[in-house]
Write a structure and sequence with these properties.
37% helix, Spore Coat Polysaccharide Biosynthesis Protein SpsA, Chain A, alpha/beta, 10 helices, single chain, transmembrane helix, 7-stranded mixed beta sheet
Length: 308
């Protein structure tokens, strides 16, 4: 159709002009211009808008890694992290109740227990800290997690820069069921997936910004109180039920609530997070060959760090 429209004036030339040399040259010049315009339009339509726009390389300083801890674990769990993966990762933030000098410490006035209110209070501080930064990604982990920065960057780089991404690993094999409090003490049943905080999870900047009405400032704790569930469940509720965005299930995140011996040694470098703890009444950690015994390195974090 566009070709016919572009060349229709030629019929006028052939009909009313005598085919002298000047007229022929004029027609040929017009044909040449029309062809150039047509090819330009055709090519511009066939090339995707983002074909020549490369995504900026993601660096560890682009990720807000928040490690939730508390004062009573500074000399045990936190000390282990500082000795291992944190020593290779300068750009992270420790969320705690007391100060540990020399690091990006966000000191909160949250309770030190493991209650729903205390956990949500700390997650609120993590979220607000990220929103006040210029980071592209927010990632939460606990103080019993080992983070592989290279694997983390590889995972996050696979997602579109402007995507609404909530990625992590659920601890349940089906969506959790909650009862949301409504006005007049009424409730309604809601079901949604959530990424367990004990394995770690990540949110893209764009999605985190959309969460603000239910997560910014005191809103996060209010939202948590409405479903009467902890912080990680609240994040899933906001993303899936308030925003209608599905969680991305990723098996590369791990908590101490799973059998860590099932992780093959060759695949350990590709895992985003690892963990350790007591599982089924015995020590639960990855299997790593190294110069340290399980008695000297029960978490296997030191051995893993040496081989990274």
């Amino acid at each position: 159709m566009s070709v016919i429209c572009l060349f229709s004036p030629l019929f006028h030339f052939f009909g009313v002009l005598r085919m002298d040399g000047k007229a022929v040259k004029t027609i040929l010049l017009y044909i040449y211009i029309c062809l150039c315009v047509y090819l330009l339009i055709t090519c511009s339509r066939s090339v995707p808008e983002d074909a020549h726009v490369s995504q900026p390389e993601l660096k560890v300083e682009d990720v807000y890694i928040a490690v939730k801890t508390t004062g009573r674990f500074h000399k045990t769990r936190l000390a282990l992290l500082l000795e291992t993966w944190i020593s290779r990762t300068k750009y992270l933030f420790l969320i705690s109740l007391s100060l540990s000098p020399g690091y990006n410490m966000v000191v909160t006035d949250c309770q030190s227990d493991h209650s729903q209110q205390a956990l949500s209070c700390k997650m609120s501080a993590e979220y607000d800290g990220f929103m006040a930064s210029n980071k592209r990604w927010f990632c939460h982990v606990d103080d019993d997690n080992y983070v592989n920065p290279e694997a983390l960057l590889s995972l996050l780089s696979a997602f579109p820069q402007e995507g609404d991404i909530y990625v992590g690993k659920p601890s349940l094999d089906k969506p959790i069921t909650a009862h949301e409090l409504l006005e007049g003490n009424a409730t309604r049943e809601v079901q949604f997936w959530f990424a367990t905080g004990g394995a770690g999870f990540c949110l893209s900047r764009r999605l985190a910004e959309k969460m603000a009405p239910w997560a910014s400032g005191s809103q996060f704790m209010r939202t948590s109180a409405k479903i009467r569930l902890p912080d990680d469940c609240t994040v899933g509720f906001i993303v899936e039920k308030r925003l209608g965005i599905s969680m991305v299930h990723c098996p590369l995140f791990h908590s101490h609530l799973e059998n860590l011996l099932l992780i093959g040694q060759r695949s350990i470098p590709q895992q985003v997070t690892l963990s350790y703890g007591i599982f089924e009444n015995k020590m639960n950690s990855i299997e790593v060959k190294g110069s340290f015994s399980k008695e000297d390195d029960p978490s296997r974090f030191v051995s893993r760090n040496i081989h990274s």
